[in-house]
Specification:
mainly alpha
Length: 282
């Protein structure tokens, strides 16, 4: 991969689609009554699908196994802190904070671990995406301190697993196999983690809460499969930056389905993110 390489049109389209799916499952998670249980069910859906997929896919190259294990661990942390952040914070508050720091951290990690270098246009785009998302979370309606700290920690986990997967998928020799085994390793322990934290499982009912969580699990699995595949074809920082355009979709979903407020300031920040994404993809 040459330094400053662009994002192929197909990859661009799929990553933007994955951004919409990512915002959608976050909206479903935020609307749940027990967010920890909802995200546990979402992970269980991913693990179940991944377990089936591993029966038909070749093993990824052994060099990628430590990266898949590390990514699974980081994504468990991501799930726990994200669920905590949504306990009090709104989608339009938490989502920008959780995603805001990730592109810059991914760019730094990609430069250190994968030798990637960004051109001036991409650097400007990355700054606009990150700055716009962070600015979107500021103001009088910002979330409480604990939710903010949980969201910031979530962003750190995002950066960590994006860089880890960016390296791991390139070593795997088979991106779909890598995703399947990583998803299985991440999702399988989640019910046990829930049990350790809450001491008992809630009753499993065929109600709206359960179906929202199961649907969110499907959306999340498809979204991240696309992103990891894109990481094998395009620079990490550019894929990460494009993925952060999900904040646009999250803002819309928050207003339409969660009855959250959309202000002029938030709209202006969203426009900065859009411009930054276009520069990253250029």
């Amino acid at each position: 991969m040459t330094p400053g390489a662009g994002v192929p049109p197909l990859v661009l389209s799929l990553v933007l689609g994955a951004a919409l799916l990512h915002a959608s499952w976050n909206a479903l998670l935020r609307s749940g009554l027990d967010r920890l249980w909802s995200i546990t069910l979402m992970c269980a859906v991913g693990a179940s699908a991944a377990a089936i997929a591993t029966l038909f896919l070749p093993l990824p190259a052994p060099a990628s196994w430590p990266y898949a294990a590390l990514s699974a661990t980081l994504q468990i942390g991501y799930c726990l802190f994200l669920a905590r952040a949504y306990e009090q914070g709104e989608l339009g508050q938490i989502y920008p904070i959780a995603r805001g720091a990730a592109p810059l951290l991914v760019a730094l990690g990609a430069a250190v671990f994968a030798g990637e270098r960004l051109g001036p246009q991409a650097i400007v785009g990355l700054g606009l995406v990150s700055g716009g998302i962070v600015a979107l979370s500021l103001g009088k309606d910002r979330p409480d301190l604990r939710s903010t700290l949980a969201a910031l920690a979530t962003g750190g986990f995002v950066a960590g697993y994006m860089v880890t997967d960016g390296v791991g998928v390139r070593l795997s020799g088979h991106p779909l196999s890598y995703v399947a085994w990583m998803t299985l390793a991440q999702g399988a322990p989640m019910p046990l983690i829930y049990l350790a934290l809450r001491r008992r499982f809630p009753p499993l009912r065929a109600d709206a809460e359960t179906f929202k969580a199961l649907g969110g699990g499907v959306l999340g699995l498809v979204a991240y499969t696309v992103v990891v595949w894109a990481l094998s074809l395009a620079p990490m920082a550019k894929v990460s930056g494009l993925r952060e355009t999900s904040i646009l979709f999250a803002a819309i979903l928050g207003v339409l389905f969660l009855k959250e407020r959309f202000t002029i300031r938030r709209g202006a920040c969203a426009a900065l993110i859009t411009v930054g994404a276009l520069l990253l993809a250029g």
